[in-house]
Amino acid sequence: MTNNIPTFFSRRQVAALFDTSEDEVKKMDNTVFNPSKGPDGSLRYSAETVVQALKASSDAPGEANTPGAVCALAFELFQTGKSLPDVVISLKQSPETVSVLRAKFDAMAGGLILPSETVSLLRKVSGRTVGNASDVLKLIDSLCAERDAAYDQGFADASDTGEVLDPQTGKMTSVASIISRSPK
Q1: What are phi and psi of 174, to 5 degrees?
Q2: What tens digit of pLDDT does each residue of 13-56 get?
Q3: What is the pLDDT averaged over residues 97-109?
Q4: Are residues 20 and 72 in the same domain?
Q5: Is residue 74 part of a domain?
Q6: Residue 25 needs a FRET pair 20 to 30 A away by CA distance; which of 44, 51, 84, 160 works?
Q7: In sequence order, what are the residues at sequence separation of 6 or more whose Cβ sits closer than 8 angstroms to the Cβ of residue 160?
């Protein structure tokens, strides 16, 4: 699969994609599919093979690759962390179709997609790698830690001199006067 990250489906998932029973999928083992055993001993079906079989079934006369099957496969790929371009390539669907499916997936599962311009801006202003949601969380945590450290340093400086830079006036002022006008 794309990015050398293998993606697998269970027999139940393959049966749902093909709108058939698990017994029918089992009959296709070692002909259409070559399942492998997972670490837990369960059979796993390569997503690449499943996509090829779905495409072949849609090309067959009288057979239709239902929108539900494409949607289900797209959702499975989204759950495994595949990107929009990866899903477009795997399913051979238009970017518009996959974007709509992703929006529906996010509405159902809860998620957030950042436009590439936003990711570029985050990378530029932070000087950090931002490639996934985990990186965004790390960036936010880091910025919060920097803010807290700056606050702690300002508090330490204020207790040394009794004065601190007033953010409203830009002048040094006593800590007591700032505290007295801050909302309780």
Answers
A1: -70, 145
A2: 888 888 788 998 898 888 888 899 888 888 898 888 888 887 77
A3: 86
A4: yes
A5: yes
A6: 84
A7: none
Q: Is residue 122 part of a domain?
A: no
SS3 65: coil
Q: What's the domain count of the chain?
A: 2
**Residue-number span of the structural domain to which 158 is assigned:** 134-181
Amino acid identity for residue 78 in this structure: F
Q: Are residues 102 and 139 in the same domain?
A: no
Task: Please tell me whether residues 104 and 149 are part of one structural domain.
Answer: no
Beta-carbon contacts of residue 78 (< 8 Å; ≥ 6 apart): 87, 101, 102, 105, 109
The C-alpha atoms of residue 129 and residue 152 are separated, in whole angstroms, by 27
Would you say residue 80 lies in a domain? yes
Q: Calculate mean pLDDT across residues 68-73.
A: 83
Q: Are residues 73 and 141 in the same domain?
A: no
* Whether pTM exceeds 0.85: no
On whether both 95 and 166 belong to a single domain, the answer is no
Residues 99 and 175 reside in one and the same domain = no
